[in-house]
Amino acid sequence: MRYLIISIIMVITIVFSGCDKSGSPEIENSSYREIDAVTGIIPITGSNVLNSIPVAPDPMKEYEIQLLSSKDLQMIRLEKQKLDKNGYEAKVIGKLIEGDIYYRLRLKNRYSLNEAEEIGKEIRNKIDSISDFWIEKIV
Questions:
Q1: Does residue 119 form part of some domain?
Q2: Which strand (E) or helix (H) includes residue 96?
Q3: Of the N and C termini of the chain, which has fewer Cβ atoms inside 10 Å?
Q4: Is residue 12 in some structural domain?
Q5: CATH number, domain with residue 111
Q6: How far is residue 102's CA from residue 121's CA, in Å, rounded to a whole number?
Q7: What is the tally of structural domains in the chain?
Q8: Alpha-carbon distances, residue 124 vs 8, 118, 127 (angstroms)
């Protein structure tokens, strides 16, 4: 019990210490938070890579593909592993809705609308547990 309380305090401290105006605009302006699929921890910034060089996004590639959404993080992790094994880089994003965290499995890259539709159909046909997909415009 003591370790649980200490862990919660540490997570709250880490999360709130990273809340400043210099953060990534994509993360700052979004209610979504990328979650590490192994640890289940929400990173403080959009990237954990030190000294990374920001790259302007391709204006033609403004769509993300969402493949699953569930409150079951373990199931999302298993599906992410399937995508990884099939050559698709995926990310897990957590969204707090009415006190529950919903984990959303999305591909890491952004695509044009046509590319997103083609890749979504390809994944749906290749991986049996993926029965549908959503395309979301990221602004």
A1: yes
A2: strand 90-97
A3: N
A4: no
A5: 3.30.70
A6: 23
A7: 1
A8: 38, 10, 6
Tokens of 91: 């990310």
Q: List phi, psi (to 5°) of 120.
A: -60, -45
Q: What are phi and psi of 100, to 5 degrees?
A: -110, 145
Percent of all residues in the chain with a pLDDT value above 90, rounded to a whole number: 51
Confidence band of 53 (pLDDT split at 50, 70, 90): low
Please count the other Cβ atoms lying within 10 Å of the Cβ belonging to residue 130: 18
* Pairwise CA distance, residues 73 & 75, whole Å: 5
What is the residue whose two structure tokens read 């993300």?
Answer: 64
Q: 27 and 43 in contact (C-beta within 8 Å)?
A: no
Tell me, yes or no, whether 73 lies in a domain. yes
Single-letter residue type at 37: A
Residue-number span of the structural domain to which 86 is assigned: 63-137
Distances (CA, A) of 86 to 34, 89, 123: 21, 9, 9
CB 76 within 8 A of CB 103: yes
H helices of the chain, in order, are 2-17, 25-28, 73-85, 113-126
Q: How many residues does the chain have?
A: 139
- Whole-number pLDDT of residue 50: 44
